[in-house]
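Researcher: Let's run the pair from yesterday's discussion. Sequence first, then tokens, for each.
Model: Starting with the first of the pair.
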Amino acid sequence: MWPGPVAAFAMKILVANLGSTSLKYRLFEFRENDHVELHRGGTERVTDYVGAIDACLRDLHETGSIRHERDLDAVAFKTILARDRSGCAFVDDELLAAMEACNRIAPAHNPPYVKGIRIFTHRMPKTPMVALFETAFYQWLPEAACRYAVPESWYALGVRRFGYHGASHKFIAERSADLLQRPDIGDRVRSLYDRPQPAPTDSGRPELRVISCHLGGSSSVTGLRNGIPIGNSFGTSPQSGLPQNNRSGDLDPFALLHAMREQSLSVDDAERLLSRESGLRALSGGDNDLRDIRQKALAGDGKAQTAIDVFVSQIRHWIGAFFFELDGIDALVFTAGIGENHPWLREQVCAGLERLGLLIDPIANHTAMATEALVSAPESRVQIRVIPTNEELVVAREARRMLQALNTANPI
């Protein structure tokens, strides 16, 4: 843990979003109860994280966002998974070791984060590093939403449903509550990690029931009751749930064993095939970008159309599961790169659901691109909304709380 206090009034926090081949970053400044995004940037097709991180810091200097690394009160990370750890924490060697222990569960995510955090720490040894784990938002899931029907010894190893995309779904929980005129729930979710468990909801007001669809290169669906998740389509790993860009999504475990035996696959072979050569890439015949797949499908490519059909079917499957569990919903929200930018996909997901109260407005839907929008028809009983996510803000805000708590314990 970082031992010293930091400036209490104004804080600059850099959020680094590390992918297997990308680095995206946003710089926030917090003052009192307000914040501003000072700068954002990123690098795609990263092969050298040292160079990418140096370019990030150079960009912050050249744009005048910071004058020196000392201007940053913290660097915060949207980390994925660590053994026996969750929530928000200062990064130290013990935490990095706990993350490395889960590298085989999250092979596309944990290794880049561990590597990137070490590079940032080396470049800025006096700057606090803060991790907000994606599993944190799901720490209050009911046990029935977490357990697999496997031996107890497997459960002890961590074979359970964790839930991911926590920062994104948390932002949607907050923002959807505000838009549906339930600021009591929005404020409650914003302060969620300040409390050991969710505060009780005012029983005199109706429940707010929302389904959040984070659809991108990595996709998941979460059901929200009064801003608190009741489940997530991911399982033990981010490899599960919906078909991902090149990851399989849900798969019968005996299908895996069958394929391994029939093709004489090693564990490493199976891991590579499931995490790099499956998902939309496998279904479409080689493409993992939905834009390319859509164009091929429109040109009559059958495999591309199958990839879209499977993806849409699985989104609807999970929406249906949470719709039933929530006993109906007040809003269906689309977010992330695909959810925000592909009106045709939203239309297909909502097609034929009029009896469930979902009726999309074709004109509103097709004009909504990467901006907040109500895209349901006036007569729809359920609101259908597009809400751009802001995972980085959620991470920055939680990092700020950690620093404020440190100031309280160690005043300047």
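Model: Moving on to the second of the pair.
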Amino acid sequence: MKFLHDILEKQRPLFERGGKFEKLYYLFEAIETFLFTPAEVTKPKGVQVRDAIDLKRLMMTVVIAMIPCLIFGIWNVGEQHYIATGKVGSFWDKFLFGAIKVIPIILVAYASGGTVEVIFAIIRKHPINEGFLVTGLLIPLIMPATIPLWQVALATVFAVLVAKEVFGGTGMNILNVAMTARAFLYFAYPSDISGEVWVVSDGEKFVDGYSGATALAIAASVSAANPSTNSTTLITDALTAANNGMFSFYNLFMGFVPGSIGETSTLMALIGAAIMISCGVASWKIIFSVFLGAYLTGIIFNLIPGEPRPYFCLPAHYHLVMGGLAFGAVFMATDPVSSAQTEIGKWIYGFLIGFLTVLIRVKNPAYPEGIMLAVLLMNVLAPLIDFYVVQANKRKRLKRALAV
């Protein structure tokens, strides 16, 4: 690859100060930095902490952790299509079908968001950061495969502008960019991201009795249709009966169900969590506390006496594998920029995300998926949590100092 690096270096004078393409210097630098290790090194002045990790390696680790969700999601798009249409296909038939649907969504997200990043880098005269490597893949993974490409572009541009660039760019945003994109589409075009829009039909007729709804949508419809019924098994029976037992706990955990491209498989999300935790990229405290908060909240709702709505009776462990809770806990809640930074704050932050997710699901069946709003709300409250944790630590230290 040395010849390619030599070619780029010969073009460098054109992009440096006084060159013909001076205004595009940071675009040139981004391309070179992406392809090759930067030449800058720590100067030998004073004490320096040297570390092999940098922003590019950090972001690439997260991208690698998302690959299991991506690969499984591509296959599952094809799997759900073949199930819905009653056709028979091999593993590669399903994977190829899914790739044809998913890859354009990824390309559109990267192209639209990357264009905004480049424009702001040129205007502000600062380097293009690698943060969008993660965001550009996260956004497609939390979208249904049926989403129109123009909506993907619009949501990505909106999220990068409103949730990131207006705050100063990478490292300055207070909201998770990918969740902001999903929230924009949910409130602007709800018919294209909710309801029975999760399975690609390509104009083919679904087999009789098949429903394209997600497990959360089915649970919400049962709860809404039986407001005066109190039965622990009512929703689980409905889930088991739907689509010939598709929504069993095993299938929900493995991800063999309709849903957003990368969110369906709890197993794949946990594999991604293991990769990031082992590399020191994500906080296990946040991930664990999200699951803990959701599980305990589910148990509390199960114990409420006389509650007539069946959604209250959904077994707590089902909440952990339904919807995008696992994916959100692993890849959204752990965002190092918008999450809590203090150690105690991470426990509080994650627990409240799990609590709010189940609370929104149970109390508002019209909006069955709560992880999106829970993450965005706690993004806003994360600095406040850290502030009070720091203040509490100061008071404890002051008391110890005065006691001496």
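Researcher: Give me one sentence on the second I can quote.
Model: Residues 2-35 form one domain.
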